[in-house]
Design a protein that fits this description.
By secondary structure, the protein is mainly alpha-helical. About 55% of the residues lie in helices and about 5% in strands. The strands form four sheets. A two-stranded antiparallel sheet has the order 1-2. The protein has a two-stranded antiparallel sheet with strand order 3-4. Helix 7 runs parallel beside helix 14 and helix 8 (about 120-135) packs across helix 9 (about 140-155). The chain is globular.
Length: about 260
Amino acid sequence: MAAETHLQGVEISAAQFFEIWNHYDSDGNGYLDGKELLNFIQELQQARKKAGLELTPEMKAFVDQYGKSTDGKIGIVELAQILPTEENFLLFFRCQQLKSSEDFMQTWRKYDTDHSGFIETEELKSFLKDLLQKANKQIGDSKLTEYTEIMLKMFDSNNDGKLELTEMASLLPVQENFLLQFKSVKMRGKEFNKAFELYDQDGNGYIDENELDALLKDLCEKNKKDLDINNLPAYKKNMMALSDGGKLYRTELALILCAEQD
């Protein structure tokens, strides 16, 4: 098994990291959880033993945290913290700019330069190049292209060659990814447009902070299992990070609340 063989390596390449993730995320939902996570932990321990390698301190802490129950859930970011992956590729998962949902939203606005609602190949390449430069790392264009292609393969769940907001949010640690909480409350196109017009009370074509507050309160009331009204200030702060000077337009709000256009 290629993935298990990769786990025996002293250093794992970017391409091997992708193969490992793809193998253990067997249902393709973007996370390792339940049996997937326990299976990964078991095979990681076996692979290291077979290669005559001790578990690193990070691996031991990971096994202690997630190895005793089926309740654990990790994303790509958490996996990158424990596997000995090539240094430059790891920087994308340890980026200080992406430690919170608010930072992530602001970064998204910067790199979705055409406001298409997607990060396309060239935009993604610019994003990765800037991250490396901020870490004082220089790599050749061919390596940057390789990293860009791997990131697309890793996060582009619907294989359309570009990243949606929710797909790229996999760069966030699971605990910081507030978009996960809104996944089950997304609306279809017509329903979303109706809601936007209802809460855009002055009809000026955008949602301001007060209007967003009212919308989120109602969403929390209707979806108590998924959304916690005590987190409303954080939800609002994260969403407003997508706004244009306090104006949250329909296309930006749709990235979070609209499942598809009718």
